[in-house]
Amino acid sequence: MAHKPRSEMIAETRAKLVSAARAAFGSKGYAEASMDDFTAAAGLTRGALYHHFGDKKGLLQAVIGEIDAEMNDRLKIVSAKAATPWQGFVDECIAYIEMALEPEIQRIVLRDGPAVLGDPTAWPTQNACIRSMTGSLRNFAQEGTIVAADPEAMAQLINGATLNAALWIANAPDPETTSKKAVEATRFLLEGLLVKKGSRE
């Protein structure tokens, strides 16, 4: 039997460790999950974990990166289903906030992530989100859908609002009620950007 290419073996090893860690972080939380949990579940050694991720914190970063990519794919689908690009933008913001109700996202991304990795606004994934949102808002302003304000500034503020809404929900005593409040407030905020009929902003 032919040996697998080294790159394929490395990808498989990383995937096994990320999958095992994701299950442990999701069920036990970062603090309670041990590296032995990951390696035993993946059938690998601690040496493999250290080699590929450095430590437990590095593994958490990889798990969050994987979840974030999945969230992004889901949000693109939500946006694509909307009747207009602007409605797609709004729906995407709302869907992101509502994802904070999902146990895995709530625990790993919104609770353990900030506790271990620090301010989420400094995570690499946020930079990509800001760039994408800035481009969308620039287009909406140019076509006259929203007021002509600085698109990067608006992107920073909207991103901050939705992120903080998600963190609020994830840490609230009653996430369901908090989510409804956050969604309603976000809709009002976004509606405020729309150019009113008859106006020439």
Automatic annotation (TrEMBL):
UniProt-listed Pfam families: TetR_C_41 (PF21351), TetR_N (PF00440)
Residues annotated to bind DNA: 34-53
InterPro entries: Homeodomain-like_sf, HTH-type_TetR-like_transc_reg, HTH_TetR, Rv0078-like_C
Molecular function as annotated in GO: DNA-binding transcription factor activity; transcription cis-regulatory region binding
Keywords assigned: DNA-binding
Domain HTH tetR-type: 11-71
Domain of life the protein comes from: Bacteria
Protein name: TetR family transcriptional regulator
Organism, as annotated: Phyllobacterium leguminum
